Amino acid sequence: AKGSALIKAIRILEEGLKAGLNPAEGGELAVNLRALYDYGIQRLTQANLRNDDAAVAEVLALIEPLAQCWKDIRGQVIQGA
User: Fold this and answer.
1) pTM, whole model, 2 decimals?
2) Per residue in 29-50, pLDDT tens?
3) Which among 57, 7, 68, 66 is positioned nearest to 32, based on CA atoms?
4) What is the secondary structure of 1-63 as a DSSP string?
């Protein structure tokens, strides 16, 4: 189950978040996010191979603040609509 969850998380980073970036329009932010997602993919792959809970925690600590920012933005847009 743990391996399946890690593979799902890797796919979300790779096929969802990273694939949705547009460096031409997103500029430096898109480049930085791509690097962050690449790093997360690398660390989660290592975590899966080595059963490394610390690597999973590291990626969560990096990604969760971004997720919270998107939730906050969404809430502001809904309130402003």
Assistant:
1) 0.88
2) 999 999 999 999 999 999 999 9
3) 66
4) -HHHHHHHHHHIIIIIIITT--HHHHHHHHHHHHHHHHHHHHHHHHHHHHT-HHHHHHHHHHH
Instruction: Quote the tokens at residue 66.
Output: 């971004």
pLDDT tens digits for 49-78? 999 999 999 999 999 999 999 999 998 888
Whole-angstrom distance, CA of residue 76 vs CA of residue 79: 5
Tokens of 57: 């925690």
Q: What is the CA radius of gyration of the chain?
A: 14
Closest CA to 33 of 50, 47, 16: 16
